[in-house]
Amino acid sequence: DAGITQSPRYKITETGRQVTLMCHQTWSHSYMFWYRQDLGHGLRLIYYSAAADITDKGEVPDGYVVSRSKTENFPLTLESATRSQTSVYFCASRSGAIYEQYFGPGTRLTVT
Amino acid sequence: RKEVEQDPGPFNVPEGATVAFNCTYSNSASQSFFWYRQDCRKEPKLLMSVYSSGNEDGRFTAQLNRASQYISLLIRDSKLSDSATYLCAVTFSGNTGKLIFGQGTTLQVKP
Q1: Closest-approach residue (CA) in chain B for A50
Q2: What DSSP designation does B26 have?
Q3: Chain A environment of B41 (Cβ under 8 Å)
């Protein structure tokens, strides 16, 4: 029972490149979320999704794109990576009935 | 003013001590409250939900004070393994259950 997984766990990319972070959950949770965590800012919501094909912006969506064609997957794409997007990215999910969110292990992204 | 605020600490306590953290929230329409634990930039892990009547899980007790708009976490008989960052999270009415996190309080338990 893997729960919620993220890949890659570590990624180094160059400024201007497109990079996609993957998130997969096996619980059939309807809600999925993407956060970034930076020193001094805590966890900030980038995008979330209430169901397949339903996505919405969070607090810091600029420079990111998401899609959700299947309930279990919620990829996050940085269209043209910038150094300010160097961060740790966490995916989370929850069922529709309760608000408790469960987090994936994170992806540590460095943009050079 | 931030929607959810925590004292970042660090709180340095000896083993066996009792320590309490508070978390204040600004929106009186807040609905659900949680404490998460995070180790060394690993993923946050749900520690406990906070119910109106308060709740206890072993050495951990969570309280909610709606009148003063804060939640608290009490840790009794601190262990070295309790050293971590504790994040509070709040949902607000009408925001589709999105969690708003505080920046976290760091606890260091010393031998």
Answers
A1: B96
A2: S
A3: 37, 88, 106
Q: What does the pLDDT look like over B58-73, one tens digit per residue? A: 999 999 999 999 999 9
From the list B58, B37, B39, B36, the residue with the least C-alpha distance to B49 is B36
Residue B107 DSSP SS3: strand
What pLDDT is stored for residue B94 in this prediction?
Answer: 65
A109 vs A9: CA distance, rounded Å: 8
pLDDT of residue B95: 61
Interchain proximity B46–A41, CB inside 8 Å: no
Residues of B in contact with A97 (CB under 8 A): none
pLDDT number for residue B60: 97
Buried b or exposed e, range A39-64, using 16+ CB within 10 angstroms: eeebbbbbbbbeebeebeebebbeeb
d(CA B9, CA B82): 15
